[in-house]
Amino acid sequence: MELPNKDTLVKLYRDLLAARRVESELWTRQGNLAGSGGGAHRGPGEEVIPIAFCNNLTKTDCFMPNFRTGVCIFTKPGFTLKDVVAMSLGKAVRGEVPYTPDYGMLGGGGTLGEASVRYIGGAAAADMKKTGDIAVFIQGDGASNRAPTHEAMAVAGAWQLPIIFVIQNNRYGMGTAVEKSYNIEDLSLRGVGYGFPHDRVDGNDMIAMYLTAKKHVDRCRAGGGPSLIAADTWRLRPHFEGDAQMYRPKGEAEDWWKREPLARYQKELMDLGVLTEADVERLEKEVAAEIQAALDEVDKMPAITNVYEEMEKTAIDGL
Question: pTM of the full predicted structure?
Fold first, then answer.
């Protein structure tokens, strides 16, 4: 396995560090300290998957992250850390996963899985216009079992659209363990029925995830058609903050926290001689300063006022 160059390895680490720190800071800023309950769906430990893809995409490629890792979109060309902070704190932009078609963001949806149909539309548009853009659609093991996903994959396969489907397998769909909703261990085998090339990868291994993403992105951009990746990770937080998690075996969380990707990747880079302890300390300070600067700037911005702009008129007033 040929490693990415040093600059790429360090950028991936910095992105992962920033994603973890800003998510934690935003959670604290919103007054929802861990253990206080609430309905937030957090995603620490699952950041590697979207970051690996974003570092292989262009500004106009279509991209949909899993709903837990929306903070990671600052790693996609066209977005900044300030954008993430602003949309999370209700300033100037709309939604956790913004509708920004110029930058390839076609929006999410309250019903998980349905956006897959929207993203094959983005892929079809790129194909018809010959732009060279591709689409990457990431969702969990739970949403990947829903009908819209299969319909989207069927069309993508039949039309050979430039889209990569990614199953972010964090082992749980709400409170249902993946073993109870799939009869296969390797979820990438779902691609066989649609004629997709497919790969299974450790979604907590930054280098392996980056190289797998790069392989599929390069193939897709070269006209190879759709593919499927199953990225194995684990949901370190409850389904939502306040979830008692009675469905989890005792000790499972403690075991997986030992395998979380930030500490793992940091150790790997230090073992490779890419980072030193001084580098790690410097990057922590740089990221903290960047997050604070974004927070300070966003604090001065007006509250969101354009929620209903650009909405199409319906036959019934008020809808």
Answer: 0.88
